[in-house]
Write a structure and sequence with these properties.
By secondary structure, this protein is of the alpha+beta class. It is built from 5 helices and 10 strands, in the order ββββαβαβαββαββα. Helix 2 links the parallel strand 5 and strand 6. The radius of gyration is 20 Å and the shape is elongated. Belongs to the peroxiredoxin family. AhpC/Prx1 subfamily.
């Protein structure tokens, strides 16, 4: 199935088959739209407007690292849903392979995959999102992940090699952190967890910096938000 995509971000305003795009996606781009067939029926990216989305690719069905990831995503799906975030997966395998794989995961491991898995045999979406190289001899997608916000804007991007699995816990933390900093003009420190303290934004001019009164263990460029 050929997926039709359009890129409406600031760097490419015209509508065209996204497989022809040469500009890589970056943070704060509008995520390219698509319509595709999945294990749970047809979906469009527009279906997820108003909610957060973790859109991720995996190299191939019936492979060990991918199986471990899908079982972990499935176990964590209720936690993603609790923070208003959906899951959407993709590989270039066909729909029947997808269906056979997730059925085998259910039968062998007792894990039900309840999020949609896109088939992309034409590689239109995979190439459009940079999940495979334009001239790649191997059609397998890398472990790419895009966190897309309720306005359809790409807020985080990660690529993992084929033989290294992602951390589902880190993706949960990442979505929660993005939601937290969107609510106020703050930043999350290293290792931040939901409910933890956040940092004030850095001063943007000398007057503001001089007016600040750092406390113990703080500096004008390193201030904790008041509880």
């Amino acid at each position: 199935m050929f997926a039709r995509l359009s890129h409406t971000g600031s760097r490419m305003s015209r509508t065209e088959p996204f497989a022809n795009a040469s500009t890589p996606l970056r943070l704060h781009d509008v995520a390219p739209g698509f319509h595709a067939r999945t294990t749970l029926g047809e979906v469009s990216l527009a279906d997820y407007r108003g909610r957060w989305l973790v859109f991720f690719s995996h190299p191939a069905d019936f492979t060990p690292v991918c199986t471990s990831e899908f079982m972990a995503f499935s176990a964590a799906q209720p936690r993603f849903e609790a923070i208003g975030c959906d899951l959407l997966a993709l590989s270039v395998d066909g729909l029947f392979s997808h269906l056979a794989w997730i059925r085998d995961i259910r039968d062998r491991f007792g894990v039900t995959v309840n999020f949609p898995l896109i088939e992309d045999p034409s590689m239109a979406i995979a190439r459009g999102y940079g999940m495979v190289g334009a001239e790649a001899g191997d059609s397998a997608t890398v472990r790419a992940t895009y966190v897309i916000d309720p306005q359809g804007v790409i807020r985080a991007i990660s690529w993992y090699p084929m033989n290294v699995g992602r951390s589902v816990e880190e993706l949960l933390r990442l979505v929660a952190a993005l939601q937290a900093v969107d609510q106020t003009d703050t930043g999350t420190p290293e290792g931040w967890q939901p409910g933890g303290r956040r940092l004030q934004s850095a001063a943007v001019d000398s007057g503001t910096a001089l007016a600040l009164q750092p406390g113990q263990g703080e500096a004008w460029y390193y201030l904790w938000c008041q509880a």
